[in-house]
Amino acid sequence: MSSTRQLLAAGPRMFKGRRRPPGHHHLRGSDFAWAIAFALPYAAVFFVFVVYPFGYAMWMAAKPSLYAELIADRLYAPALVNTLLFVGLGVNVKMFLALLLSGFFMRRRWWIKALLAVYILPWALAATQACISFHWMLIGEQGLVDGLLSALFGIDGPIWFNHRWLALGSNIVAYIWKWMPFWTLVFLAARMRIPRDIYDSAEVDGAIGVRRFVHVTFPLLANLYLICTLLSTLWTLGDFTTVYLVSGGGPAGTTEVLATLGFHYAFDASKPARGVAVVISAVPVLIPITIVLMRRLQASEAQL
Amino acid sequence: MSSATWSLPLARRRNRLRRGLTEAGSVMLGVALLIWSLLPVYNMLLIALDPEEGEIEFSGNLYPPEVSFEGFWDVVTQEARYLEDFWHQFGNSLYIGLLTMVLTVLIGSLASFAVTRMRLAKGSLLTNAALLTYAIPASFLIVPYYRIMHLYGLSDNLWAVIAAQVSFATPFAILIMQLYGSLIPFELDDAARVDGASAVQLYLRIYLPLMAPALAVVAVYALLLAWNDYLYQAVLLSPRNMTVSVTQGQLFTDADAPWNAMMAAAIIYVLPPIVLLFALRRYVAASLSMEVDKG
User: Fold this and answer.
1) Do both B170 and B242 map to the same domain?
2) What is the ipTM of this complex?
3) In chain B, which residues have their Cβ closer than 8 Å to the Cβ of A259?
4) pLDDT tens for each residue of B55-75
5) Which residues contact A173 (CB under 8 A, 6 or more apart)?
6) B195 and B50 part of one domain
7) Residues B30 and B164 occupy one common structural domain
8) Residue B97: which domain range?
9) Is the peptide bond before A251 cis (omega within 30 degrees of 0)?
């Protein structure tokens, strides 16, 4: 496998684009003013619409007694478990399948290219409407899924939203359906950038099929895979629409996640501070994920 | 099987068998993916093409017993219950979506141009801080947003939603543009400089055209973010300023709503981003495969 190893060692360097020339560079007077003017709109947006709301949230949720109330709350612990399952299963299953399917879409067949156009449709479909369609599809014997189950296998499908785990599972499946295509495209793009010769020399060394995936493709994509998984974890923790519009948090609030429970307290129960405390209680998990993510991004700027 | 096949060397026969199995496997996977991707879309059509109004009369139908475009007609003429203001709401959604898209591309490209191309000292602090936005998911900030928009005098204003969407779309836009921009040689800027180009000309004549594929990706991303949103529109807007998503989301468990028309409205609503994505697919594909690298 020596030739493969050499290429693998050279791999990351091959991916890097032209880097900023070394040496410090001082902007001339008017250029400096322009650069500031260009950066200013985003800086303003960041402080006015990100930093301030975040500070406001921390201020609203600062009272320790709020968290004592939360722990005593009947709905909080189940929401934590649901969030863990929704994010843990949703993100990891989605990412792993996306990675595998990106290999499938690398195949050069006209019908696979056509299929890709259909496959990315869920990503382009607005989330609200897609989730509503999932809701009616799983509504029970009137829905399409139970209709298919009875037509194909002659079994009576369940009423999906009457059972906690079935409802939670429905949310996860709807989530995977909606977001898997986006990440498949990201991995597909990364695979396309792997130089052909790496595969050629790997093939000479006998790495084909599963072995090629384990020893060549995956090591090259591992960093990207980690970055994407972390980013997706952050986004999924904040996914409100899927749970709110597929199971609606039902039955009896047993499938609520932190995002929907916070909303429920703030706007249905008129307890805004408790609503903010629910979501702020996830911050101790969010901060380390963000730190790892930023380190990884800096370490591999051009690799993504 | 013919005798010729049997006389082939074992390795070749095994190879052929494996190729056949792979082919069969990928066809099966393809069919499964087709069903998986299209089932919820088909479900939308199934409901939208039903003539019945009111009660969901499906009883597990696998195809519409009687295809009818009544639902679509009722949406277009705004005759369906709950959809009397459909086109006004659609206009609101479009306004939010398009402005989010334009502002994200503009603000994001200006910032990443200043930081990566003009090498603004300490500018990377800004783009790194931008990523911190994702430390707190958008939905977690809805309560403070609701209050802050009131302070800013933007309650029940479409601009409140636009501001929220732009704030959450721009960090990803900057990330993409930074990664893509690192593939454009700095020599181009230097050459233009020697010819006397100003910073603005550099941005307009060199940066934007070369970044077109990345800008297309960012535009699609920002539009989809705004188009996917339910929470911010539901909380920050009053019934006077409703959007299509909020109307639909608020009625989603109501079996008495005219669901054929509701689903028809949903289908009309989901079309614009799909059209945009397919219109820009060349750019999106180019950006994804980073063709510029070879140029």
Assistant:
1) yes
2) 0.85
3) 137, 139-140
4) 555 666 788 777 888 888 888
5) A134
6) no
7) no
8) 86-294
9) yes
